[in-house]
Amino acid sequence: METTSRRNVLRAMAVGAGVVGAASISPSALAFYNSNPGLRDSAPVGGGTSSGTGKLTGRLVFPEDPGYADDRRIWNLQFNPYPLVIVFCQNADDVVNAITWSRQHDVAFRARGGRHALEGWSSIDGGVIIDVSDLQDIKLDTDAQLATVQTGLPQDAIVNALGAHNFAIPTGAEIGVGVAGVTLGGGIGQLSRSLGVTSDSLIGVDIVVPQGERGACLIHADEKNYADLLWACKGGGGGNFGIATSYTFRIHPIDDVTVYQLTWDDWGLLSQLLGTWQQTAPSAENGFGSVFNAKTETDGHIYCYGIYRGSEDKLRKIIAPLLNIGDPQADIQTLRYVDAWNLLAGTSDDPVAVHIPSSWAYDLVPDQGIATIRKFLAELPGLEGEIWCLAWGGVQKRTRPDASAFPHRQPHYYMEWSGVWETDEQQSIVYSWTERFRKALQPYLKGSYVNVPDNSLADWPTAYYGDNYPRLRKIKTKYDPHEFFQYEQSIRPL
Length: 494
Prior knowledge:
Number of helices: 15
Number of strands: 19
Shape: globular
Distance between the termini: 11 Å
Radius of gyration: 23 Å
């Protein structure tokens, strides 16, 4: 079923040995490495041309370099990749050259930005990591309400740069996570109910795509040029069609907001709180963003928090049904949006070993389903676990599922369930728990979110993309027919 070109790329996933510090170097990559001792000397920082030099350029890190141990690591500690070389690109030419070199030598490559690919698919053993995290320029045109953002910026940097001028784009709510991956997968967060997903604000993208049998080139996709590729970049997931180097967003003026944080210490209220939240938050006015977060019974805490684009008085009326349950601790403030975002995002982005499945509640979960959720949160003693739900609806309800590659416009809310571990034994417990949890939730939830990928999904194309997958395959065939951009759940060409 797979093409010959796909098998060639997969050669770099074979296990070899011989490079200092590397546990998994492919025989073909290792042979090239050993026969080219001057490889690093022919790679000046920032060199290259738009047509590709056939040499690696940029800031290169090899297995014997002092910084290799730190530079190869990613956020999810369950993965431990040993790449042949990490190319920290300094400009778009470096991206072109890295792809061209990898194709010419049949060495697998992966694109990496913020290092938060949850299944580790932005890294690879024995291949080339094309890291764009050094590309961090941002240009604002507040008169035209546009921002041009390089691909290496984390979303907290975008929020703060725009917030200084009282503008925003709808992003996620985590520091350190790259805006590139967020955008390419759709991008969900506190402003999604009023402004759409992150990619709904995307109007143009500079992206390096395969060219011919062995090369690569930089193109600009917008509504007039390569419009099909722009559509695919708006929710089709990262690492499928090329490596984006720059994004152009339409930015949105934003006034002061009301930020709220509610905490319950009585875990016995879980069923009542979740039932009330799902009846309240998804049907509130569009400016109301809300998260419901319940920890395990061992932890004993339940949280509800969010950002409301309105006054405190109106907010209190919306959340009154929640405030009337138990005795919650409530912290409600009126702040600039940028300050509210930073308050909820916090200051820590510590790496962990974690597994996070996800799904969507297209219908409200009945009492039996809520009882199931409660049951599983009571079954993970001594380990950190939770559910995390984001209210949906608002402007999403008026957006067609095929308006972009991101299809999940009609759910009431989004849900993740996750577990964290430190030992191999604990990892087995967590994976068993999350998988049993998934099966128990199947009558009530469907689909999944491509930015929270899950290698355990059987029908991932439908889960991530719904009816948009056939169109994505046609676009994949047009721009990457030989499937040089690939990973375990990459879009397949026709």
